[in-house]
Structures are given as C-alpha cells and as structure tokens.
Design a protein that fits this description.
Elements lengths: L44 E12 L2 E12 L3 E5 L6 H6 L9 E6 L2 E2 L5 H9 L1 E4 L11 H12 L4 H14 L15 H13 L5 E5 L7 H18 L2 E5 L3 H7 L2 E6 L2 E6 L1 H5 L4 H7 L2
Parallel strand pairs: 3-8, 3-9, 6-7, 7-8
Antiparallel strand pairs: 1-2, 1-4, 4-5, 9-10
Helix pairs in contact: 5-6, 6-7
C-alpha cells in the first residue's frame, strides 16, 4: 500500500474517523445506517443513504444501497462497471430520486426538497466531473468567474481575489488567462477541482477524479483532496477505480456490487476481504 504523504493539517490514520467505534482489532466497525423511517441521522453524519432502490424500466440499478459519511471525512465508493456507483452519487444532489429509500444530506431528506431549499443544498455541494467539464470556449479565469457571477453578490474585485486565491491554492495561479486546451490533463483536473471549491462548499463529490492521469498527477490531485478535508473540513464522496487515489484519500471505503453496498471499512480491510467479488476486484 502506498504511504499517504503529509499534506498539512491534522492527519488521521487512514481508515479512522473521529468518534468511530472500532471492532477491537484495529479495523473500522461495520458501516452503521439507520432504518428507513427512523428520522434524521446523528448530527455528525453529513450524508446518509438508506436502503436506496432505483430502477430504469426493467433494469434494477440500486437494490438497497446504504452508506453513511461523517462530517469532515472522505468516503470512497468502489465497484465494477455498472454496479450503481454514479447512480448512487446522483441521489445526493437529487439528480435522481429513489424508488424506495431515503437520501439524507445535512440532516434533511433530499428527495423531499424543492425550490430554494434544493438550490441552497446544491450550492453547498461541489462536483468534480470525470472529464473536468471545463467550458472550452472560456479561459480558466472565466470558467471560475462563471459561477461566482451567477451565484454570489461579490463585487468584481472580490471575485478576482477569490479566483486568484483559489488558483494559488491548487498551485496554478499562472493559468488564469489560458484555455483548457492549453493545459495538461493533470492541470485540467486541478482547475476542475478549483472551480468545484470556488463557492466554498461543505461537501465535494468526485466522479473518477484521477482517471487517465499519470501516477505523479494522481498523487497531486489526491493530496489536494486530502488538504480540502484537513484544512477546510470538507466532507467528500469519491467514485474511483484508482487504488493509489483511494489509498491516499479514503477514511472509509465502500464496495458496491449489483446495486448494494456489500462491504464497508478501511481500504485495507476491503483488500483483505475473503468475499469472492472483492478478491476478484483487488486481484487477491
């Protein structure tokens, strides 16, 4: 397993969450999720997906998936193609609503939100897309300013300061006048991450944040994700197949198979699992 590099802020051992009960052998206790109908989750749980079911026609994608994410922690969801990872993530921001089950975020049922309440929730959540999803016809600065101009009351000078500060944070201040096509794949990911945090969200969702990057860029992007947790207290859920990325960022890992979370715990625990699906996935 790769060592997690020091990235500033208070570091926790990977796989350990604040206030987490352990199984007595150094491993995390099983992921605890309340039953449907039991009301809001504990205050320290920022995301709780309870028994989610979702079908598209005759295709059952989620079949009772459940997971919980504590405030200020990074969760990783792993699994094979078509297992339901992206569908699960979309329920957090009500891009999809479940056929059955309850998606809770910040103490409220997301599937019951509408109007301004839903808009406010979505503005508190940043999303890093798999391909970066930068606007090709806009410079980096214009990409960043697009959201500030639409969603804040900041003055032009304040927006400029916010953009400069955020680009400096990802160590790409000199890219402001450049267009996405002029950037490397790793730089595009970092700009995408900068844009995802420009509105200072409480939660970040990552869809394959390091796909297609070389190992050096994978580590750079992953360590930025860790810094966001440690320095800004941002909670996150990441979908990834990248074991190096998962090793660096995961406080808790969840494995989804046929629409159900079949195991949760530290990444090491999942890698050592005797479950045949996990053994096949990790090549053990």
């Amino acid at each position: 397993m790769a060592e997690r590099a020091a990235t500033g802020g208070a570091q926790r051992p990977r796989g350990e969450q604040p206030g987490e009960d352990h199984a007595g052998n150094g491993e995390l206790a099983p992921n605890r999720v309340a039953e449907v109908g039991s009301g809001p989750p504990p205050e320290d749980t920022i995301i709780e997906l309870r028994d989610l079911h979702k079908s598209f026609g005759d295709l059952n994608v989620l079949n009772g998936a459940s997971l919980a994410v504590e405030k200020g922690t990074s969760a990783v969801v792993m699994g094979g193609s078509g297992a339901g990872k992206s569908v699960l993530l979309k329920h957090i921001v009500k891009l999809l609503t479940p056929d059955h089950g309850e998606p809770w975020v910040k103490g409220k049922r997301v599937d019951e939100m509408t109007g301004d309440e839903l808009d406010d929730l979505r503005l508190s959540i940043g999303y890093l897309f798999q391909g970066g999803a930068l606007f090709d016809s806009m410079s980096v600065e214009e990409n960043m300013n697009f959201f500030l101009n639409r969603h804040t009351d900041l003055s032009e000078g304040e927006r400029t300061d916010r953009i400069e500060e955020t680009l400096s944070w990802v160590n790409l201040a000199d890219t402001a006048p450049k267009f996405p096509a002029e950037l490397s794949g790793g730089q595009q990911k970092r700009i995408g991450l900068a844009r995802a945090i420009i509105l200072q969200p409480e939660i970040l969702l990552y869809d394959e944040p390091t796909t297609g990057l070389d190992p050096v860029s994978v580590r750079t992007v992953s360590e930025l994700i860790v810094r966001l947790r440690d320095e800004r207290g941002i909670s996150s859920v990441a979908i990834t197949h990248d074991l190096l990325c998962a090793d660096i960022i995961a406080d808790r890992a969840h494995f989804i198979y046929e629409g159900e979370i079949i195991e949760s715990g530290s990444l090491e625990a999942l890698e050592r699992s005797n479950h045949p699906v996990l053994r096949n996935f990790f090549g053990s």
